[in-house]
Specification:
The chain is an alpha/beta fold. The chain folds into 2 domains: about 110 residues, Nucleotidyltransferase, domain 5 (2-Layer Sandwich); about 170 residues, ATPase, nucleotide binding domain (Nucleotidyltransferase, domain 5, 2-Layer Sandwich). The chain has 12 helices and 13 strands. The protein has a 5-stranded mixed sheet, with helices on both faces. A 5-stranded mixed sheet has the order 11-10-9-12-13. Helix 5 packs across helix 7. The longest helix is centred in the C-terminal third of the chain and has 25 residues. Bound molecules: zinc ion. The site of zinc ion (ZN) has 6 residues, from loops.
Length: about 325
């Protein structure tokens, strides 16, 4: 039985996972004012859930923690969580001490998703693959030779900041411009869609009639309803995604690419545009890579966090 804590930018999930099956879990808002208070809250809730399921935190086989930012996993430190503003947080030591369990491991959330896909999902048995989340932002994880690649400064796999637009680049949260995240994230699609609705009365009326949200999800739904403008916004996002992925495919030649996140759920609509660009920009042997929606669904980081203790154990024994 594994304890799992998935701390997201806005929501946190805690619970117990047994061989990939969620036994019990609970979701609550991430409070960003103080990491100590929030981590204490997550610990308390995990203790209570353990009690209800007849366990104690010190008797769990391990506890995995996924964190929303740059993580030095070997030191167990959250270096920077941009949304929360947390810096140099000794996450692993906090939870080891607080939950009286020495088998606590922490990872960046997208890396946790990749470990989850590898352990429970479509990536079982693969050595080289890419996991990309297209959500509020765009993040990536690289598994190479059966190990996560962290890089010299823990920012390997940051596909969201690969430059994809040079003619009309938009500013990115990282301070640069033309990044994949600035053009194809849920935030970027929502912004485009909002502008489109503001200047297109017929589309605005249709949205109101269908009670669609004015965001990336609404854009997808309006495109499904036959609106050419909404379809064009998604088509553009798909081509930018294709460009970002092409850079990664030429560099890493993975066996597969897995897509998660809210916008990732529209992979069926995005895939033709992504494929079109890949056909133009990727060297032939790396081109026919399968691009699949994650098997882990909405709880990918939570399930992935639960796979971290086993991943660490295998890493120590297999290499
Ligand atoms: Zn950027």
């Amino acid at each position: 039985m594994i304890g799992s804590i998935d701390i997201g930018g806005t929501k946190t999930l805690v619970g117990l996972v047994d061989r990939g099956r969620i036994v019990i879990h609970e979701r609550f808002a991430t409070v960003t004012e103080s990491w100590q208070e929030h981590f204490e809250q997550a610990s308390l809730r995990l203790e209570k859930l353990c009690e209800r399921a007849g366990w104690q935190t010190d008797s769990l086989d391990g506890i995995g923690v996924s964190l929303p930012g740059m993580v030095n996993e070997s030191r167990g430190v959250l270096l920077l969580a941009p949304y929360a503003g947390w810096k140099n947080v000794p996450a692993r030591d906090f939870f080891r001490r607080r939950l009286k369990n020495t088998n606590v491991f922490v990872e960046n959330d997208v890396n946790a998703c990749a470990v989850g896909e590898w352990t429970l999902g479509h990536a079982k048995g693969m050595q080289d693959f890419l996991w990309v989340t297209v959500s509020t932002g765009v993040g990536g994880a690289v598994m190479a030779n059966g190990r996560l690649v962290h890089g010299a400064a823990q920012v390997a796999g940051e596909i969201g900041h690969v430059k994809v637009e040079f003619a009309a680049p938009r500013p990115c949260t990282c301070g640069q411009e033309g990044c994949l995240e600035a053009h194809a994230s849920g935030t970027a699609i929502s912004r485009e869609f909002t502008q489109y609705i503001e200047k297109t009365p017929e589309a605005a009326q249709r949205c109101a009639a269908l009670q669609l949200p004015i965001d990336a999800r609404g854009c997808r739904m309006l495109a499904d309803d036959g609106d050419a403008g909404a379809a064009r916004i998604l088509g553009d996002a798909a081509r930018w995604l294709g460009r970002g992925l092409s850079a990664a495919l030429n560099l890493l030649n993975p066996e597969a690419v897995f897509i998660g996140g809210g916008v990732g759920q529209s992979l069926d609509v995005l895939l033709p545009g992504i494929r079109e660009v890949i056909a133009q920009e990727v060297v032939t042997p790396a081109r026919s890579v399968p691009i699949l929606y994650t098997k882990l669904g909405y709880n990918a980081a939570f399930l992935g966090a639960a796979c971290l203790p086993e991943y660490e154990r295998r890493k120590q024994h297999d290499f």
